[in-house]
Amino acid sequence: MAGDLRIGVACKRMVRFRFDGETLTACEGEMLASALYAQGRRTLRTSRDDGGPRGAFCFMGVCQECVVSIGGRLTEACRTPVHDGLVVESVR
Predict the structure, then answer these.
(1) pLDDT tens digit string along 23-42?
(2) CB atoms within 10 A of CB 24
(3) Which of helix, strand or coil describes residue 10?
(4) In contact, 44 and 91? CB cutoff 8 Å
(5) Which of 18, 46, 52, 54 is most buried, taking the most CB atoms under 10 A from its CB?
(6) Phi-psi category of 8—alpha, beta or left, where left has phi over 0 and alpha has psi -120 to 50?
(7) Distance between CA atoms of 19 and 30, rounded to whole angstroms?
(8) Please, what is the average pLDDT of the chain?
């Protein structure tokens, strides 16, 4: 499915990264939120208010819905380029 959603992308190098313990692949430099969305990952965190699923919404760093944890630091997935060996955890 990953290739189905990447329209007109010239991928020079595929890299591996981990999301919640699962190894995934993406084009190097692709934004993390886009890479996860292309592979069917829609939930990136859960709401502190109601425990409901949250994921990428605006894809440009405004809404804060795509916050994930990388190395214990909260960051926006839509503003984080994928690189080889990246380890990402959803926020619960």
Answers:
(1) 999 999 999 999 999 999 99
(2) 19
(3) coil
(4) yes
(5) 54
(6) left
(7) 15
(8) 89
